[in-house]
Write a structure and sequence with these properties.
Radius of gyration: 16 Å
CATH architecture: Beta Barrel
Structural class: alpha+beta
Strand order of the largest sheet: 1-2-3-4-5-7-8-9
Number of strands: 9
Order of helices and strands: HHEHEEEEEEEE
Largest sheet: 8 strands, antiparallel, barrel
Length: about 170
């Protein structure tokens, strides 16, 4: 079952009080953006979500080596148009009881057919202004829901393990 906005909002109220119990292991995978809701809206932003789905918007999360036991993650957020991909890569970690997935992007890549055309280092954000996802809920091998720093709500579906559409995180 893919949740709707009323179910997610109720679950969000409960997780603010009780936390989610989500761990790094629950988040690892390649997540395909399915639906978004603007801040304060119970109606999905269907046109924006359709555009992002058409651009193959993906969030890839992987354990960050030795730090993974206490929430360390590598992440890549990308969109793709044919063989052209725009990808932001960085690091994140789980913080707090809810928890929050706090992250920052270290570099931007423009890739064409697997070949890096442009790679740029990105400045680190002010620690008090780092982006985050307030995790709401996840269904094992199914979906992930979170609210972003700007107040929007997002729902991602876990991609299959065939690797066909996976976003690869550059480990360098």
């Amino acid at each position: 079952m893919i949740p709707d906005a009323p179910w997610l909002l109720e679950r969000e109220r409960r997780c603010r009080r009780d936390g989610t119990g989500l761990t790094t292991a629950d988040l690892v995978g390649c997540w395909r953006l399915e639906q978004i809701w603007n801040k304060g809206s119970r109606q999905p932003a269907s046109a924006a979500a359709a555009l992002l789905r058409g651009l193959a918007a993906r969030l890839r999360l992987s354990a960050a080596g030795a730090d993974s036991e206490d929430g360390g993650l590598r992440l890549a957020n990308s969109v793709r148009l044919g063989a052209l991909e725009l990808r932001f890569e960085g690091v994140g970690r789980l913080e707090g009881r809810r928890p929050l997935l706090v992250f920052s992007f270290e570099r931007l890549l423009l890739v064409l057919g697997g070949r890096v055309l442009i790679e740029r280092a990105l400045p680190q954000p002010d620690p008090l202004r780092r982006p985050f996802f307030a995790l709401i809920a996840a269904e094992h091998h199914g979906w992930l829901a979170a609210r972003g720093r700007g107040g929007g709500l997002a729902l991602w579906l876990l991609e299959g393990t065939d690797g066909e559409n996976e976003v690869r995180v550059n480990e360098n």
